[in-house]
């Protein structure tokens, strides 16, 4: 199996390269535990690795990945599904005391495209049923965008839904009582951003304007000021 063999070869490169270069940091993390300041909720898409996008070091980010980087609405009933992401969020906020939560979406998201096109509608588990149930969280936004696209064919429905899903996830984060309380105290900031795989552009949500604005990569220019948002990782 060449894919798994490639993973083992990659481990050997890591063990003799990056691990040795950051050995002091790894030793400190092993002894003292983790204390990341940021929780990143990103897509499982193999093309979107937040540790690479933000060029972070080990221990700097607590990362949760799922299909289409979605956050479910707060649901205290343990008998219901979709609690894996909620558990990770709870741990990051209440135990690790992160200062920021970033919902990181991306362009050309397969989960968003499947939702928009109804690829797994009425599918059974093993045939896309689990995907359909998970993506049902954004069904209202999807239906609104579908209707808008019918009225105006120039709308890029997939891009619109990618952005809408980030906004929805931020709204859902605020439905968690412990997040709302921490945000009200000024101890936690919620952020949204979208990474364009083809262009390498990061667009950050400006809560004042409601728009996603491209972040400049020109170190000589003034950094983009986005109130209440992530300015640097």
TrEMBL record:
Single Gene Ontology MF annotation? zinc ion binding
Gene Ontology biological-process annotations: carbon utilization
PROSITE patterns, alphabetically? Answer: PROK_CO2_ANHYDRASE_1, PROK_CO2_ANHYDRASE_2
In which residues is Zn(2+) bound?
Answer: 43, 45, 106, 109
Q: What is its EC number?
A: 4.2.1.1
What EC class is this? lyase
Arranged from A to Z, the UniProt key words for this protein are: Lyase, Metal-binding, Zinc
Q: Which cofactor does it need?
A: Zn(2+)
Q: How is the cofactor bound?
A: Binds 1 zinc ion per subunit.
Tagged with keyword Zinc = yes
* Reported function: Reversible hydration of carbon dioxide.
Family statement: Belongs to the beta-class carbonic anhydrase family.
Protein name per UniProt: Carbonic anhydrase
Q: What organism is the protein native to?
A: Sandarakinorhabdus cyanobacteriorum
């Amino acid at each position: 199996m060449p894919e798994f063999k490639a993973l083992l070869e990659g481990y050997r490169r890591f063990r003799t390269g990056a691990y040795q270069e950051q050995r002091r940091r790894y030793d400190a993390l092993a002894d003292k535990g983790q204390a990341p300041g940021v929780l990143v909720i990103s897509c499982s898409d193999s093309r979107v690795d937040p540790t690479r996008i933000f060029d972070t070091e080990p221990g700097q980010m607590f990362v949760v990945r799922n299909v289409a980087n979605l956050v479910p609405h707060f649901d205290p009933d343990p008998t219901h599904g979709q609690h894996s992401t909620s558990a990770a969020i709870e741990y990051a906020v209440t135990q690790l005391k992160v200062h920021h939560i970033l919902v990181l979406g991306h362009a050309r998201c397969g989960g968003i495209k499947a939702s928009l096109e109804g690829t797994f509608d009425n599918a059974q588990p093993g045939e896309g049923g689990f995907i359909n149930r998970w993506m049902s969280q954004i069904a209202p936004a999807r239906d609104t965008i579908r209707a808008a696209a019918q009225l105006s064919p120039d709308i890029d429905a997939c891009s619109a839904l990618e952005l809408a899903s980030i906004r929805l996830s931020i709204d859902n984060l605020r439905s968690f009582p412990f997040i709302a309380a921490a945000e009200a105290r000024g101890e936690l900031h919620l952020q949204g951003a979208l990474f364009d795989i083809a262009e390498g552009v990061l667009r950050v949500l400006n809560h004042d304007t409601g728009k996603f604005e491209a972040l400049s990569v020109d170190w000589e220019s003034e950094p983009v000021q986005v109130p209440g948002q992530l300015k640097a990782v």
